[in-house]
Amino acid sequence: MNSFDQSVQQKLSIDIAADSLTIKQYKVISGHMLRTFLPKSKTKIPKIIRFTLFSVLTWLVFSIFSTSFYEYFNFSFSISAWRWKSSDDYEIVFDLLNTSAFVAIIWIFALGMILTRYLTCRYSQKYYHQYFKVNIQIERVLRFEQNGITIIVKSGISSFIPWSSVKGTSTIENIFIIAFSNGSWVWLPQENDENKNVRNSLIKFIEDKLTDMEEV
Which of 13, 103, 166, 169 could form a disulfide with 143 if both were Cys (CB 3.0 to 4.6 A apart)? Predict the structure, then answer.
């Protein structure tokens, strides 16, 4: 291993090269971290499906009781559009009344949700690439100590994470992941002939430390 700073190279440390993680692997690991370590949703049904089911159920209820409902409350609800054919003549493009108008509003809202989700996904892809280039695709050293983990990037900036802030570990595509309680994570690169011994020693050390933390 070639360290960019030999002064931080110690027995329980490992160099992380700038190209040790691809953008595809970063996305896969990020998604895994969200599903594994963030609070689980109470339901596994996607929001858009739940909203669709609610819309259909609402439409059925209003369709069945539409006449009595609108007569009982003595009101009507409509959505219409028209275009002028001449200065004193026009034609109706569409005219939705009561239940049909109500359902149209629901589905317009649903389409707005879908569009918002689409735009959010596009923005997320852009954010992924920017964040990956600035924060992931840089050289760093991970130093493992009795009290925690020190992360030292090429610029010399370092941060310390105590073992109490380590939420768990996971292995994805032979990449060992260490997740922290604030949602961030670091990784040990894939095993190769050069880092095999150091990597295996570090994994054993990390697992032993987390086991000790659970027993305390």
Answer: 13
| Cβ atoms < 10 Å from Cβ of 142 | 19
- pLDDT under 50: residue ranges of the chain: 1-10
Q: Which residues have a Cβ under 8 Å from the Cβ of 189 and sit 6 or more positions away?
A: 14, 16, 17, 20, 21, 175, 195, 199
CA-to-CA distance for 167 and 188, rounded, in angstroms?
A: 16
Q: Which residues of 184-200 are buried (b: 16+ CB within 10 A; e: fewer)?
A: ebbbbbeeeeebeebbe
Handedness of CA 101, 105, 110, 114 (dihedral sign): positive
Alpha-helical segments (H) within 10-65: 23-37, 47-64
Rounded to whole angstroms, how far apart are CA atoms 24 and 1? Answer: 24
pTM: 0.61
* Predicted pLDDT of residue 10: 45
Helix (H, G, I), strand (E, B) or coil at 138: coil
pLDDT at 135: 79
Q: What is the pLDDT of residue 5?
A: 44
HSE-up of residue 101 (Cα within 13 Å, Cβ side): 13
3-state SS, residue 82: strand
Comparing CA positions, the residue from 191, 199, 196 lying closest to residue 142 is 199
**% of the chain surpassing 70 pLDDT:** 78
